[in-house]
Amino acid sequence: MSAYQQLQQRFKRHGCLEDALAVLHWDTATNMPSGGAEVRSEQSAELEVMQHELLTAPETGDLLAQAAEDGEQLDAWQVSNLREMQRLWRHATAVPADLVDALSRASQRCEMIWREARPASNYAQVQPALQEVLDLTRDKARAKADALGCSLYDSLLDQYEPGGSSAQIDGIFDDLAGFLPDVLPQVLERQAREPAPHQPQGPFPVDRQEALGRRLMKTLGFDFNHGRLDQSLHPFCGGVPDDLRLTTRYDETDFVSSLMGILHETGHALYERGLPVDWRHQPVGQARGMALHESQSLMVEMQACRGDAFLSYLAPLLAETFGGPAEVWQSENLARIYRHVEPGFIRVDADEVTYPAHVILRYRLEKALIEGDMELGELPAAWNAGMKDLLGIEPPEDRLGCLQDIHWYAGEWGYFPTYTLGAMIAAQLFDAARRENPQVETHLAQGDFSPLMGWLRQNVHAWGSFMDTSDLVQRVTGRPLDAEVFKTHLRQRYVET
Amino acid sequence: MSAYQQLQQRFKRHGCLEDALAVLHWDTATNMPSGGAEVRSEQSAELEVMQHELLTAPETGDLLAQAAEDGEQLDAWQVSNLREMQRLWRHATAVPADLVDALSRASQRCEMIWREARPASNYAQVQPALQEVLDLTRDKARAKADALGCSLYDSLLDQYEPGGSSAQIDGIFDDLAGFLPDVLPQVLERQAREPAPHQPQGPFPVDRQEALGRRLMKTLGFDFNHGRLDQSLHPFCGGVPDDLRLTTRYDETDFVSSLMGILHETGHALYERGLPVDWRHQPVGQARGMALHESQSLMVEMQACRGDAFLSYLAPLLAETFGGPAEVWQSENLARIYRHVEPGFIRVDADEVTYPAHVILRYRLEKALIEGDMELGELPAAWNAGMKDLLGIEPPEDRLGCLQDIHWYAGEWGYFPTYTLGAMIAAQLFDAARRENPQVETHLAQGDFSPLMGWLRQNVHAWGSFMDTSDLVQRVTGRPLDAEVFKTHLRQRYVET
C-alpha cells in the first residue's frame, strides 16, 4: 500500500471512532439514565484519546511526509483529502498533550463556576477561572499559530472555520456594523406602522407539535430511513450522514421555538446527508466548517421558512394542527410573529436583524482578548459599550451581558463569527439559487423544497471539504463572500415590503 | 509503570471499546433506522478490529511475558486479572487473522442461507455452507486447542465457559439424560391428574404489560438510574454494568412470554450490576462465563419466579393489571400455566423439565461433529433419533429438528451446554441460599427479593471472573457442580407437590 492509502486507512479508523462518539453523545442526551454518566465520560474520553493518538502517532507524520514525497498520481479529491489530513494533523500535533489536558481541566472548572456565576450575575466570581482559561487558550493559540503560520486569533478560528481569516471577517463585519445602526430604525419604524400580530393561544399539545415537526421534516426532504427525531434538553443535530439524530424540546405554551428549532436542525441534517458518499470516514468527506454548516440551517430556518412563500404553505397546516381563531393563522399574521424585530440583550433570543450585532460584538472582544489588546477586567464595560454602540441598549447586569454565553467559559474561542458568516452565506446562496432557478422560491409555496435542496446538494453538500468556504461561495455564487446580499435581504424583508 | 500496570491500561482501552460496542449494539436493536445498518456494520467492525489489534499486538505479548518474569508483588485480584488477560490473549493470538476472517465470512453466508432453508425445512440447501463453517471451525478449534492444551471441543467451549471441560459435562449430562426418561412420565402423569388450567383471555394491552414489567423489575432490585427497558425484536440484556439496557417484545395475545422474558433478562442485568466496581473495564471484573450468567437469569425466572412463594405475590398484581375472571389469577392456576410440562420439538418453547434434553442432544451432536466422530450428512437422522431417545418424540421435518437453532449456522459451536449448566447452577445456588437463610424463599411471597439478591451479590456477582465457575460453585454451595440438586428440584416441583 502507498503512503496515501495507509493514511486513508488510518483516517477511516479515526472516522469510525468519530461515529461511535457521535452515537454515544446522542445516547447521552436522549436515553442515558443519570447513573450512566460517569462511565460514559470514561468511555468517551478513552475514545477521544485513541483518536488523538491516531493523529499524533509518529507513523502519521511519517506517512504524511512520505505521501508528499511520493509524488503518487492522486486525483483532485485525493489531493484535497491529503490536504485535510495534513490540516488535522497540524492542529493535533501543534499543542503539547499537557497543555491540552490543562486547558480541558481549566475549562471544565470554569464552566462549573460559570453555571453559578451567571444566574448570580457575578462576573468577579468567574473572572479568575476565566483568566486561567484565557491564558491557556492563548498558549494553545501561540502553538497553533506557529504550526499554521497565522495570527493567534486565526489559529483558533481555523479550528471551526478552516481557511478563515480575521482580516476577511474584519472587513465584512465592519461593513455590517456600519449598516445595522442605519437600518434598524427603519425596520422598527416600518414595524410600528403594522398592526400588532394576533398571538396564538396555547396550550399546544406536544404530540401535535411533534407530528407537525415530523411532517415538515419530510417536506424538507428528511428521510426517516436515515435518521430520527427525539427529545433532549438542548436541541442538536447529531449522528452520522447515513443515520442522523435530530433532537428538539417542546414547550406547550410556545410552539414556535420548537418548530423553528426542528427546521433549523433539519437544515444541518440535510447538509450532512448530502455529503459525498464516496468519502465517508475520510476528512475530505466531512462538512466544511461551522460557517457553511450554519448557512445550511439558516438557509432553511431564515431564508426559506420565514419567507412569504413558505409561510403561505405553513399557515393552513398550523390552523389544522392547533385550531382556534382563523386570523391567528393567516400567513401575514405569521410573518409578523416570525419576523418580529426587537433589540434585546440575549443573543439566542435575537431576531434575524439584530443577531449579527451580538456576534460582531463577541468577535471583536474575543479577538482583542486573544491578541492581548484587552484585559478580562475590562470585559463587562467593553461589552456594555459595544451593545450601546451597535443596538442602542445597555445591559443592566452581566447576566444579560458578558455572562450569557457558555463559549468562552467552556474554552471555545474563535467560534462566534461562524454564526453570522453562516447567515451571510445563506443569503448569498439563496440569492444565487433563485437566480439560477426561480422555482427554488416559488415552489416553497407548495411545500416543495426539492428545487432548493437539489441545488444545495449539487452545489454545496456534495463538495464536502473539497475546497475552502470562501472558494465555494465564490464559485457557486459568482461573487466573493461579503455582506452585500445579506444587507439587501434584510432591507427587502424588513424595510421594503 | 510496571508491565502489569501497562497491561491494565491496555485492557482498560479494550474494555472501553467493548462498552462502545455494547451501546452501538443496543442502539442497532432499538433505535437505528434501517438506512443506518450499513455504516453501523462498518463502525462496529472497525472497533472490533481495534480490540483484536490491542490483544494481538506484539507489545501485549511482551508485557504479559514481562509481567510473568517481573515477580511484582500482586494481590490476589491482580493475579486473577493477569490470568484472565493471558486467557484473552491466548484466544486472540491462537487463530491466524485470515482464518478469523474466512470463518466470519463463511458464517455470515451460511446464516443467510439458513434463514431461507429453515422455513423451507431444506437441510440439503444449507449443508454445503454449514460444511464450510464446520471445517473452518475445526481449524479454529485445532489452533486454539494447541494454544490452550485441550481437546478440540473444549477449546471452543472455553470461549463461552472458561475452564469448562467436556469430561465434566459428559458426566453431568449422562446423569441427567438417564434421569429424564425416568422422571418425565411421572411428571406427565401427575399433571394429568390436575384440573386443566384456566387460560387468561387477552388482549393484554402493551402499556399495562410494560408497566407491570417495570414494576417487577424494581421489585427485583433493578435500579432505573442505572438502566432502561426498551423494545426490540429479540429480547436481550445489553449495555454496561452502570447503565444496563434491557429489551423485550410484547404480544397482546400473550403476556407470559414478555413477562417471563423481562424477569429472565433482569436476572442477567442484576448479575452485571453486581460485578466488582473496582474492576470495571478489567478482565477480572467481567462476568464469569455464560453458564454462570444463565444461572442468574434462570435463578430469577425459574427458581424464584415460577415458585409458589413468588406466584402468590404475583397473582393479585396480575388480577389488578389485567382484570377479568378471578379464578384465572389464583396462584395455583398460575402455577399450572407457568409450570406446564409438554415434550415438544422446539428448544426455545420448552419447559424447565424437558429443556435439558434439547441441550444434551445438541451438545452430544456438536461434540461429535467437532471431534470428527460424525459427518454432517448424518446430522438430521442423528438428531431425530436423539429426540426419540430423550423425549420420545420424533420431528416430522428438519425445520422442527436440526434446522431450528441459529447457533451452528452462525458459527457458534460450544455454546449450547451453558444453558443447562446454568439451570443446574441456579438450582444449586438457590438451594444453598435457602439453606443459609430461609428468608431467601419466604420473603419472595411479599415480593421481597433483597435476601436472595443480597446473597447472590455477595456470593456470586461480586466475584466477577476471580475464579472459575466450578470453583465458585464448590466454594459457595459446598459441593461440586453436578445434576443432583437440579434433579431434586425437578422432582420436588413437578412430581412430589
From TrEMBL, chains A, B:
Q: Which UniProt keywords apply?
A: Carboxypeptidase, Hydrolase, Metal-binding, Metalloprotease, Protease
Q: What does this protein do?
A: Broad specificity carboxypetidase that releases amino acids sequentially from the C-terminus, including neutral, aromatic, polar and basic residues.
User: What is the species of this protein?
Assistant: Fodinicurvata halophila
Q: What class of enzyme is it?
A: hydrolase
What EC identifiers does the entry list?
A: 3.4.17.19
Family as reported in the entry's similarity comment: Belongs to the peptidase M32 family.
Keyword Coiled coil found: no
Reaction(s) catalysed (UniProt annotation): Release of a C-terminal amino acid with broad specificity, except for -Pro
For this protein, the record's InterPro entries field holds: Peptidase_M32_Taq
- UniProt cross-references to Gene3D superfamilies, sorted A to Z: 1.10.1370.30
One MF term in GO for this entry? carboxypeptidase activity
Q: What is this protein called?
A: Metal-dependent carboxypeptidase
Keyword Metal-binding assigned: yes
